[in-house]
Amino acid sequence: MNVNARFLTNRIAQQCAYKRIVTFSTKPTEQSAAAAVPQQQQQQQHDAVAPPVRKPIVPAHYRFVYPEFLPDPKVEWRNSIREKLERLDMLNRRRQIELPEFYVGSILAVTSSDPHAAGKTSRFVGICIHRERCGLRARFILRNVIDHQGIEIVYELYDPTIQKVEVLRLEKRLDDSLFYLRDALPEFSTFDEHMEAETLEEGTPVPINELKVVLRPRPWLERWERQNLRGVANIDQYLKDKHRKSSEKVQKPWEKYDLMKQYRATIPEEEQKEIFAEVHTELHTLELQRKRNKRKRTFVKPKHLA
Amino acid sequence: MAQILLRNITRASNSTLLTTSRIGPSPLTIPAVAAANSLSQQLHTTSPCCEIRKLARLRVVDNSDLGKRAMAEGRPPRCIHVYNKRGVGLIGDKVLVAIKGQMKKGILVGLKQKQRLKQPQFDSNNLVLIDDNGSPLGTRIHVPIPTVLRTILKEKTLSKGADYTKVLAIASRYV
Predict the structure, then answer these.
(1) Where does the UniProt entry say this protein principally localizes (chain A) (predicted)?
(2) pLDDT digits (tens, 9 = 90+) for A203-220
(3) How many CB atoms neighbour CB B164 within 10 A?
(4) Which residue has the higher pLDDT, A50 or A196?
(5) Which residues in chain B have their CB less than 8 angstroms from residue A117's CB?
(6) Does B80 lie in the same domain as B140?
(7) Contact A153/B118, CB-based, under 8 Å?
(8) What are the CA-CA distances from residue A69 to residues A20, A218, A267 (Å)?
(9) B47: in domain
């Protein structure tokens, strides 16, 4: 009886802890890290006491790999039929083109058809500094410095004119969006256009690049000192007392305890499960197909001589 | 121009310069104007409006002698007229600029403003100087220019008399 009661309370605690997860966040949250350890212990206890339960079919990392499948949590904008139709359209598009897993901080190369360009296609390499919106409207911003000129391009992920999306380096950064690269020294957003794709071994977690960016002196585009950035090295150097005071004033340290705010800003876990259960099989088969095709494509085409 | 610059200074609420400007129509010495000029370039009194309107500072990106000297001196050209009906310069628009005491025409080849999907947004407002016939003053553009310009400039060439496609010929790279 005692063991059973403890097990029950554990489960309830677990459910509460995992109910809501911010979809776009790449920061390792303290809560989840802290909760991960006791969970393992619970699992061991669980195995010892009761027979093992079947694992859920949908992998837990899907909400990070395919964040655009989760709808906008704003209540006024929810419409279950539209969301369903959009998901079908997204799957249709994914059958045509490979849209790989990537995060803010990954380096991408996007080839899109461009009626204005000479070869009717244009390729742009850059670091993904922001990902936003969901469904068919999901989009991301790439940034690069070419010939000492900073350039940014916004792409929609499900844009039919996009021909190819390659991930040249799959990694995350310390922050959720990297707009501060606009105010950083140019070498931090300079990437070689002819860079080759770096392959990660299968099953390894996505590495987090702990690079700290060096900002150039003021004037800046935004008040970076107010945003609690982790990926900036030298922000203290440019702060005066008035900046520190004003940034302290606008801080909202109580917000992490605001359960309602969190509730409104996220999709509940049950709903997430429902959504991914709907698209999971299709996505999984597509993944397997791509893998098979990749293995086939390793054959190197002989060069045409003379 | 001196009056305009002075007006900027008064907005900047720099006390020492304010006193000089309050004196009114007294003849200003040249060093005072130069100091005011350099100050007005460093001070940002308002949040940056990325639109190209009158008095917007631009960056010359071709290798014309005039443009190079103006940029090296730290006195970038200012837009004094936009040749469209909206008054806000978009990509490929012709503008009239004041550069080193002269009036020159130029074409906008890169903007800081939000752009459409798949079109590049630059970190600076770039300009290529042209003469009245549309032929550029320099011989090379040393930053990438957007591919849309090819279409835009071709269309403008057809409707207007000048041939703007010569700007495309001196571009080193497209994005």
Answers:
(1) mitochondrion
(2) 899 999 999 999 999 889
(3) 23
(4) A196
(5) 147, 150, 174
(6) yes
(7) yes
(8) 16, 39, 11
(9) no
Asked whether A10 and A42 are in contact (CB, 8 A), the reply is yes
In a domain, residue B139? The reply is yes
Alpha carbon B27 to its chain centroid, in Å, reads 28
**CA–CA distance, A182 with A216 (Å, rounded to integer):** 10
Is B80 in the same domain as B152? yes
Q: Residue A197: which domain range?
A: 101-251
Structure confidence at residue A24 as a pLDDT band (50, 70, 90):
low
What residue type is B132 in one-letter code?
A: D
Query: Domain with A197 in it: what CATH number?
Result: 2.30.30
Amino acid A184 reads: A
Domain region containing B138:
59-169
pLDDT band at A37 (very low <50, low <70, confident <90, very high): very low
A239 within a domain of the structure (yes/no): yes
Whether B112 is in a domain gets the answer yes
- Residues B147, B63: one domain? yes
Strands B59-60 and B78-82: unpaired
Query: So what's the ipTM on this one?
Result: 0.76
Q: Does B44 touch chain A (CB under 8 A)?
A: yes
Q: State the Cα–Cα distance between residues B68 and B60, nearest whole angstrom.
A: 7
Which residues lie below 8 Å from residue A227, measured CB to CB, with a gap of 6+? none
- Chain A residue numbers with beta carbons less than 8 Å from the beta carbon of B115 are 154
B48 interfaces chain A, CB cutoff of 8 Å:
yes
Count of helices and strands (H, E) across chain A: 7, 5
CA distance to A63, A91, A152, A273, per residue, from A60 (Å): 7, 19, 32, 9
Query: By mean pLDDT, which of A32-41, A119-128, A269-278, B115-124 is the weakest?
Result: A32-41
pLDDT of residue A59: 86
Q: Are residues B157 and B127 in the same domain?
A: yes
Residue B147, chain A, CB below 8 Å: the answer is yes
Give the C-alpha separation, A57 to A104, whole Å: 27
Q: pLDDT digits over B146-172, tens only?
A: 999 999 999 988 765 788 999 999 999
